[in-house]
Amino acid sequence: MKILVCVSKTPDTTSKIAFTDGNAKFDEAGVQWIINPYDEWYSLVRAIELKEKDPSVEIHLITVGGADAEPIIRKALALGGDAAFRINADSSDSYYIAAQIAEKAKQESYDIIFTGKETIDYNGSSIGGMLAELTNLPFVSLATKFELTGSTASITREIEGGEEVAEVILPVVVSCQKGVAEQRIPNMRGIMAARTKPLNVKEPNNLDALTTIVSFELPPAKAGVKLVDADNVNELVRLLHEEAKVI
């Protein structure tokens, strides 16, 4: 069995966010990069758990990004990936990224393609669905559990008021969220082994992006807090009537 895990580079959640070029470009200066948590903690770890049950499982990692993404994918190899592919392109367009991954996926005939439910920078949640369409595979989104019996996957996802369980014959594309697996930390053996695992760089296919970023905008600064003395009920009532906003 072969599993492809899609990995994305995202800013650490503690990074200070700023923009350049008239707010049209993300300022990467001083930013600490990490593996997108939904890719690392859930989809990758679930793939590793499947390999632990069946050592014949082969896990491939793929990312679309420049050379600065290689430390991120090396960490994913240290966690338990067998080989990695980097499509040498830098794009924020979901279709372009999904199409580049799809071209590679078609060449390898993967049984399972895992993605995180979204990336924590753009929050698009669109790669999985596009990838399934481009590879002509079934797609189950927002999985909280993934179990495998032979060639049949049982996938649980949350719905309004409960859970839904879907069964699908492999191959399949699945986007994962919290619940599928638990976060792991690479051990020293994995870190050392990752240095010699293959990381293949492939030039992108000649495809056009469908979207471009026009501008970014930071959310408005939080308003100050007004403290009212516990004995001054009249002032509290006045503030609630005249200044409080219903959100």
Keywords for this entry:
247 residues
Q: Please name the fourth-level CATH homologous superfamily.
A: HUPs
Taken together, the total number of domains comes to: 1
The H/E string reads EEEEEHEHEHEHEEEEHEH
**Based on CA inertia axes, which overall geometry fits?**
globular
How many E-type strands?
13
Question: Numbering strands along the chain, what is their spatial order in the largest sheet?
Answer: 11-10-9-12-8-1-6-7-13
For the report, how would you describe the main beta sheet?
9 strands, mixed
The number of helical elements comes to 6
Layout of strands and helices, then pairs:
Elements: E1 2-6, E2 9-11, E3 19-20, E4 25-26, E5 33-35, H1 37-53, E6 58-64, H2 70-79, E7 83-87, H3 94-108, E8 112-116, H4 127-135, E9 139-149, E10 152-159, E11 162-169, E12 172-176, H5 188-194, E13 199-202, H6 233-242
Parallel strand pairs: 1-6, 1-8, 6-7, 7-13, 8-12, 9-12
Antiparallel strand pairs: 2-5, 3-4, 9-10, 10-11
Helix pairs in contact: 2-5, 3-4
Description of the structure:
- This protein is of the alpha/beta class and 247 residues long.
- It has one domain: Rossmann fold (3-Layer(aba) Sandwich).
- A nine-stranded mixed beta sheet has the order 11-10-9-12-8-1-6-7-13, sandwiched between helices. The chain has a two-stranded antiparallel sheet with strand order 2-5.
- The protein is globular and about 70 Å long.
- The mean pLDDT is 91.
